Amino acid sequence: MARLGQTYGLTDVQREILGTVRDFVDKEILPVATELEHRDEYPAQIVDGLKELGLFGLMIPEEYGGLGESLLTYALCVEELSRGWMSVSGIVNTHFIVAYMLKQHGTAEQRDAFLPRMAAGEVRGAFSMSEPGLGSDVSAITSKAVRDGDEYVLTGQKMWLTNGGTSSLVAVLVRSDEGHPEGTAPYKSMTTFLVEKEPGFGEVKPGLTIPGKIEKMGYKGVDTTEMIMDGLRVPADRVLGGTTGRGFYQMMDGVEVGRVNVAARGCGVAQRAFELGISYAQQRRTFGKQIAHHQAVQFKLAEMATKVEAAHAMMVNAARKKDSGERNDLEAGMAKYLASEYCKEVVEDAFRIHGGYGFSKEYEIERLYREAPMLLIGEGTAEIQKMIIGRRLLEEYRIQG
What we know:
single chain; alpha+beta; five-stranded antiparallel sheet; 14% strand
């Protein structure tokens, strides 16, 4: 049948990759996603399948063993994965952000050390900005790095690490006042460190503890954790890019990629919710006919489909803008904002179409109803996106004179 969210102008290679991922989702993810989610079980077998498909190296250049594909290809793959189970897309998202930051900002030695192993899926990435008292105010970071000879000593508590337990490489943002006199803007005294660790929980490295998984309403399966650094020693050559004070800008570059990813997730979850809603509407009968033939339900389906199409178009536009080498914070902010809001609305309409059965864990829409809210806050809340959008619009439309 015809599907919403078609993307025109793709190459044969892109279509082949997406077709392979779509088949994998239909055969390997959708049949088991709800069961694994209810058990909050890490999808090890699915992750092994993604590794075999080469998806962990999708955006990593060919010279490092990756596929060298574009952000658009990556976003469309994330959309397909999220249609199957959003948690699976979370497993690859933070990995991709760290790989992207290494590709864009890492030293030659850092790229050689990590990218080939990341492309093979042997090293899994996570990144860490947030802290328990931080929220959206990145300037309030209190975690610190202090120089000690050829090492830095890191101290502080980080929060909301996706893949915190299963990852073996964490890009962590902390304050580093070395070379930055008192009074320097907070954003200019932050540094990204590449921290290698053992996967797992507890003390995974001297001075580094991953306490355990945070229990969540949805977005289960993937591990979300805290990270406690207490005298963690990191070699000076693991400063991303080799120079302190650039961490905030490196992280923001990565977050732009992450916002396109969240938009793609919203598109995928909304696509699945629409599929469930329109399918159920043709199975359920009331007052002598399918509920799909009631005008009120048809109006809902029309609104849902339009939102799916609009969100997909904005997500594709943001990805293509980034791929062109242009600044895309405006487009990424708009896409993330619209796709996450529309996803919530489409999922809720599908939930309403299911009636009382939507409240039952037997039906897939119940899982989607708990997953969608995460997109409203992931990679920046709606309010943060509006601030970014508003400021950029004022730059673009500034009155001269």
